[in-house]
Amino acid sequence: MDLGIAGRTALVCGASKGLGYGCALALVREGVNVLIVARGQEALDSAAAQLRTAATGGATVRALATDITTEAGRAQVFALQRDFDIVVTNAGGPPPGDFRDWDREAWIKAVDANMLTPIELIKATVDGMAQRGFGRIVNITSSSVKSPIDILGLSNGARSGLTGFVAGVARSSIAAKGVTINNLLPGKFDTDRLGGTISAAAKKSGKSVDEVRRVQQAQIPAGRYGTAEEFGAICAFLCSVQAGYLTGQNILPDGGAYPGTY
Question: What is the mean pLDDT of residues 65-84?
Answer without folding.
Answer: 97
